[in-house]
Amino acid sequence: MRVAGPPARDHLLSVADLGREGIDEVMRLADSFKEVSARPIPKVPALRGKTVATLFFEASTRTRLSFETAARRLSADVMSFSASTSSLEKGESLRDTIETIDAMGVDAMVVRHRSSGVPAQVTAWTSAVVLNAGDGQHEHPTQALLDCYTIREALSERGGGEPSSDLSGLRIGIVGDIRFSRVARSNVLAFSLLGAEVTLVAPRTLLPSSLEGWPAQATPELDSVLEELDVVYLLRIQTERAGQVLLPDLDEYHSRFGLTRERAARLKPDALIMHPGPMIRGVEIAPEAAELPASLVTRQVRNGVLVRSAVLFRLLAGPGRPAVPTGEDPVA
Amino acid sequence: MPELLIRGGHVLSGGAEKRADVLVSGDAVRAVAKSIDPPAGAKVLEADGAVVAPGLVDLHTHLRQPGAEVAETVETGARAAALGGFTAVVAMPNTEPAIDDASVARDVLALGEKAACQVAVAGAITLGRRGERLAPLGELAALGITLFTDDGAGVQDGSLMRQALEYASDLKVVLAQHCEDASLAAGGHMHEGAWSSRLGIAGLSRLSEEVMLGRDIALVRALGTPMHFLHLSSAGSLALVRRAKKEGLPVTAEVTPHHLFLTDAEVASYDPVYKVNPPLREEGDVEALRRGLAEGVIDAVATDHAPHPPERKERPFDEAPFGMLGLETALAVCWTALEGRLSLGELLAAFSARPARIARLDGPAGGRQGGEVAAGAPANLVVFDPSASYLVDPGRLASRSRNTPYAGRQLKGRVRHTIYEGEPVVIEGEAQR
Amino acid sequence: MAEREREATRPQGRVFHARAEVMDEAGVARALRRIAHEIIEHNSGLGDVVVIGLQTGGAPLATRLVELLGEIEGVAVPYGTIDVAFYRDDISLRRVLPEATDIPLDLTGKTVVLVDDVLYTGRTVRAALDALADHGRARAVQLAVMVDRGHRELPIRPDYVGKNLPTRRDEVVDVSLAGVALGELSEEGGAP
Q: What is the CATH code for B54-366?
């Protein structure tokens, strides 16, 4: 069978690369992997012979293990590269590092970096599929996908019936450090693509300098929107920001933007409280308001593996790495 | 050196344009006339369809020597300048070590003696460009240096800047400011706006430029000393300069080709080739700068040619250095951006006569740059074809570096020949030395 | 529904054009009833039998088969569906979205009757055997298909066949409870 045209490389750099249909496809694939994960042997041979490299220039054991587990569930080989074991410290350029790993013949690179845009830059130096596992303050698409999946799952369990990726009519508040948050950037895109109405709740110092083109509204008053929210998404506040020019101190943040017991009591009875973790009690959320069902956290971890399996399958189960140099007809 | 006949071009000089041949003998123009027969043994350069104008003068070139010869040298930078039609450049003092004493300045000037264009130097305002103590401006002025700047950074300390202006006024030299308030700019890597917010890159606000520019205009108003403002990038800066000039203050300003041509939307690729300081800004800023140049509020175009080797640009955006190449593409970029907005003669004035005056390169001591194409004038000439177009190929650049943002772009207008001190240093777009 | 072998390739914008009806609705019903009797006879009752429909073409046939087995023997035969997208050997050539896999019990010790609409190269069945193995060690796997169109590429043969239908490789077989048709795929809107 002839595959039409040269294989175009799809990457996952931003939630925008997926669009509404792509997100829905990932959600439905994740459903399939949920069934797989319930089996005694939670593994399928779909990506046998493919190699997935995780390149974590910034440490995140949780996300790295999640991607590697997802890849292994698909029977892919996994190569793990972390900055501390790399030659970056010996002065090798980013491009050299990528080209070296590319030469080993990998099909996908899962890239985490403290600088925005590195996954996009990497695409120029490799023929592998590139997946963004969090870049600086830009995006963290798989976090947004797992959040969407978790909301979708919760709504389906509550309302019964087939799970749907349509979030229209839902009002989602994202609270906290929007300006520096890659999770916020990906979630604003994902939630709004699925039809939800997104409100950013933050002091102006923690909002991006411009919200032009953002499919979201913003308010500095949590109390003014609290009662209308179906989902309260609390972002981690980086404690090192407090005491800088952006934020007087953490106590003041907690009193203005924290989910206190009083505020929790005013939420809609079935409102979902979400957090990308790890949570700082007493800052983003009051200890007594944080009695969320423990299952939600473990469910998010499980869903992380499912959506990452889904994106790996979606990007890698198509036509593979070109076996011939570009420009030559693969059939001739 | 054989005589040189530039045949069939339109001579653009002193605001007038006429079809004429130009005969060059030694280092001077010997005749300009409707039709000149080539003298025996003379070399003939064809110029049909092209204009013959005074050579270009760049107020703002980073030649990187001494200290970063891997990026550029006086020799390669001057060759790039010649290919861009420049017959004089002002080398910025942010070398390693900085040009903050006579010995370093003398070395660079000596290297420039053998180069493909005139190499003038700017001196640092403060020692090591650290913004703490004044450099020996008098010692440097004695070498003929007339322009001083800490370019790469602005002089943050207002009191120091005031003293520098007062001290400079005695020496009849001009201070040039890279307007950037360091506290407002801290940590920024691109223009602060919709794109930086979306891309998650820390922004450089227009404020950092406008706050220092506002301070310096107030200093000029109080002290009456002249001042030149480097690479202005925002509509707000333009408004400040417009007002200052209306008041009659002795200020001049320059803009770079890239700020007239590119916007911050380019950064969406995360390619550090678009990382430059001041940053590429928005459509509205580009439009204001184009208007400012057309109306003469902006005096000069200057390249801010800033070479970096590939390994320094092939880094994460926030780790890569600021700067892009400019010399070889400057005139074509501006002509592509501005054709129809101002005449070629007006554009050439912003590239030649006016920058020569700002850097005092127009007088006998400065090489009589940016003058006229007339018998007896020095033979520093550019032959530019405004209707030719070409594709920028980074592999063909004479610069040691490759960080041009115009790679693969089609530009209108092409430098055919450059004559420096009577010698054809560029013929048909090819460097001769 | 075009034949699943082709369906999995999701040829964008291509549609099935029927050229000849091979079986009508009554013919399909008769064949299924015969297969149900053969299953009962072959397995001496339905003690450990589990019927698994291959997504997507086999699923409605399997559902109908389970109903018939219930009518004839008066027992409820366990039933499930399986999708083989994750097991295909040609995955690198095709882009697939799996349908639901729903197997309600451990298959260890069971006799699985795998149901599909068309048996062609045998590759889908091979993938299904791998997929089934991940749900337990069945005592035996039997294969029921509505149409065997030949052109096998693997050593696989059906235990129960609705109709043997000689075909060319460029032809397509379309199977549903409403009938079986032979035709080909063509560009949407274009002539067959």
A: 3.20.20.140
Range B4-51+375-431: architecture per CATH: Roll (2.30)
Q: Where in chain A is the domain with CATH 3.40.50.1370?
A: 15-140+301-316, 141-293
Q: Which amino acid is at B369?
A: Q
Residue among B270, B308, B319 with most chain A CBs within 10 A, to mutate = B270
Say if CB C112 and CB C138 are below 8 A apart. yes
Of B46-60, B258-272, C85-99, C165-179, the one with minimum mean pLDDT is C85-99
Rg, chain A, Cα only: 21
pLDDT tens digits along B395-415: 999 999 999 999 999 999 999
Q: Are B396 and B52 in contact (CB under 8 A)?
A: no
CB of B311 within 8 Å of any CB in chain A?
yes
d(CA A211, CA A110): 29
Rounded-to-integer distance, Cα A57 and Cα A117, Å: 13
- Best residue in C91, C97, C126 to probe A by mutation, most A CBs within 10 Å? C91
What is the DSSP secondary structure assignment for residue B33, as one 8-state letter?
A: E
Q: Which residues contact A165 (CB under 8 A, 6 or more apart)?
A: A20, A23, A24, A27, A28, A148, A152, A194
> CA B202: distance to chain centroid?
28
Is B299 annotated as catalytic? no
B249 compared with A296, residue with greater pLDDT: B249
Per-residue model confidence as pLDDT tens digits over B88-102: 999 999 999 999 999
A92 burial level (CB within 10 Å; 0-12, 13-18, 19+): middle
Residues of chain B with CATH 3.20.20.140: 54-366
Name all domains of chain C by residue range, CATH numbers in brackets: 4-10+24-187 (3.40.50.2020)
Give the single-character DSSP code of A329.
-
Q: Per-residue pLDDT tens for B196-237?
A: 999 999 999 999 999 999 999 999 999 999 999 999 999 999
ipTM, 2 dp: 0.91
- Determine the Cα–Cα distance for residues C119 and C22; give it in Å rounded to an integer: 16
Question: For chain B, what percentages of helix, strand and coil (3-state, to nearest 5) are there?
Answer: 35, 25, 40
Residues A2, A39, A61, A90: which is the catalytic one?
A90
Q: What CATH code would you report for A141-293?
A: 3.40.50.1370
Q: Taking the CB of residue A162, how many other CB atoms lie within 10 A of it?
A: 7
Cα gap C158→C61, rounded to integer Å:
15
